[in-house]
Design brief:
The complex is a heterodimer of chains A (about 250) and B (about 240). Chain A has about 250 residues and is of the alpha+beta class. Chain A has seven helices and ten strands. Chain B has about 240 residues and is mainly alpha-helical. A two-stranded antiparallel sheet of chain B has the order 1-4. The chains are: A alpha+beta (about 250), B mainly alpha (about 240).
Chain lengths: ~250, ~240
């Protein structure tokens, strides 16, 4: 091997090592600042990471668009849901008085709330659209308790990074980062268009995350968990969506 | 190592490396966007105008194709398999490739004189008679003369400018008008298009124009001598006219 090519090889090696460590440091920083989605390891991870990181860097505090009362859809589409099961039926027959929203994980005071308790908390109302990843959408007026208010009540710990929420429907669970969880438009929703939230639209309780698409807006929620990591939940991809082949981050 | 002067005389430089690399990257990404876009589309092959639209509202038009969702009335007795998961993942990843590669290409084109030299038509070429001759030549599927292997004709220039500076920016704009998280950042970009569903409908039409461009482009390359033109876009050099296959 000639002297020149050996020197060249060493130089390439050094460059390679430097780029690899720079990439490692960048990945570490990105993770610390919450720019890497939990499904970054899947086949389409690079694109997903770019999308999530770009939105978190540029639009962390952006508000979802709000509309005027005259723009509320007269024909909202509830979409289909799987049969709700005997437990839901029992609670519905009782007027949902026994429905509980449990809150646990990294909180100072784990607890559970009834619908009546939630109704007594300060409510916020917003007119936003909900859009399905399939392409359709409708606009409604939603009212509910800001998730941020509930997290404050239970004393979410400062190291919290995600909120995991589950439906009474088995296998329907999602999670959001604190940017969305503490966002003023993210509501534990109890009402729609001035009435109680109808069952087909997720009543009695639905988490509205208006900056993300429909499938992140889980219907019939029964529990919230606060965590600093999503590794321990399900397959560790963040939620049921990536386990079914869909992106965890649905802000796009 | 061969230098330019030692290069065989039969090969002369044609496309710079940046143009060749970005051309093929965008080709790959565009095909990925097309396939995934069609897959996303069949989950709801209905189009609307305005802010909202769903199966309970009147569509602007419906494509006569089956859907991958049983909630969409299509008239077909069957439902296609759900492919939206990987399609959405791939669509946005390929969109990043187009945007980043496109930025590189446009920066190159503006700073190195590529647009000015190779794409901007000369004033003399824009005279009605010249344009009419060129159009009629194209319509007769006339094989381009040999000197055209070295530069673009006026219709080519105008078409490329339209694709680079109108269609691609439009398809990116209409695409960015759909994500709920981006909309709040620049609501004016959505309102200017007539609403979110209008943006989706326009995204579809601009994509159709891009596909039309792709078809005509490939046909013209075929007419001009497919392998020579493709080779020029890969290795960057063009063989002498007599060698044309």
């Amino acid at each position: 091997m000639s002297e020149i090519s050996r020197r060249k090889l060493i130089r390439i090696g050094l460059w390679g090592a430097a780029s690899a460590s720079a990439l490692g440091i960048a990945a570490n920083l990105a993770d610390r600042y919450g720019l890497i989605p939990p499904d970054a390891g899947v086949l389409y991870g690079p694109g997903e990471t770019l999308t999530y990181a770009a939105q978190r860097l540029l639009a962390r505090h952006a508000m979802a668009r709000e509309f005027s009362r005259s723009e509320i859809s007269t024909d909202p589409f509830a979409n289909e849901v799987d049969p709700l099961g005997p437990e839901f039926q029992r609670l519905q027959d009782g007027g949902f008085v026994d429905w509980r929203l449990a809150v646990d994980g990294m909180v100072a005071r784990p607890t559970s709330f009834s619908i009546a308790e939630l109704m007594s908390f300060p409510h916020k109302t917003q007119i936003t659209f909900i859009a399905c990843e399939e392409g359709w959408s409708y606009i409604a007026e939603w009212s509910g308790v800001p998730l941020a208010h509930i997290l404050k009540l239970v004393g979410a710990l400062p190291q919290a990074r995600y909120v995991i929420y589950r439906s009474i429907q088995p296998d329907w669970w999602e999670s959001i980062d604190m940017a969305d969880a503490l966002h003023p438009q993210t509501l534990v929703t109890t009402g729609m268009n001035g009435r109680q939230l109808p069952v087909p639209f997720g009543g009695p309780l639905r988490l509205r995350v208006p900056r993300q698409l429909g499938y992140k807006n889980v219907k019939y929620i029964t529990s919230l968990s606060v965590s600093d990591s999503l590794k321990r939940f399900g397959k560790g991809l963040g939620s049921a969506a990536p386990e079914g082949g869909y992106a965890w981050y649905a802000g796009i | 190592m061969a230098t330019i002067s030692q290069m065989p005389e039969t090969l002369r430089p044609r496309h710079p490396a940046v143009v060749r690399v970005t051309h093929w990257l965008i080709t790959l990404a565009f095909l990925a966007l097309l396939v995934s876009g069609v897959e996303i589309l069949i989950s709801h092959p209905r189009f609307y105008w305005g802010e909202i639209g769903n199966v309970n509202t009147r569509p602007l038009f419906t494509l006569p194709i089956p859907s991958s969702r049983d909630t969409v009335p299509t008239g077909y007795g069957y439902v296609l398999p759900d492919q939206n998961g990987w399609s959405r993942y791939l669509h946005f990843e390929a969109a990043w490739v187009v945007v980043l590669t496109g930025l590189l290409y446009v920066t190159f084109g503006l700073t190195k004189g590529h647009f000015r030299r190779n794409l901007l038509p000369l004033a003399s070429e824009l005279s009605p008679t010249r344009l009419a001759t060129d159009v009629s030549r194209h319509l007769r599927f006339e094989r381009p003369s040999d000197d055209q292997a070295w530069s673009y004709n006026v219709l080519q220039r105008l078409t490329y400018l339209l694709v680079i500076f109108v269609l691609f920016p439009l398809v990116i704009w209409t695409g960015l008008a759909m994500p709920p998280s981006v909309e709040g950042l620049f609501p004016g970009l959505v309102v200017a298009l007539g609403g979110r569903q209008s943006a989706r409908t326009l995204h579809f039409f601009v994509s159709i124009f891009l596909v039309l461009f792709l078809l005509v482009h490939v046909f013209m390359v075929y007419l001009a001598g497919f392998w020579n033109r493709v080779r020029a876009m890969i290795v960057g050099r063009v063989p002498k006219p007599m060698e044309r296959v």
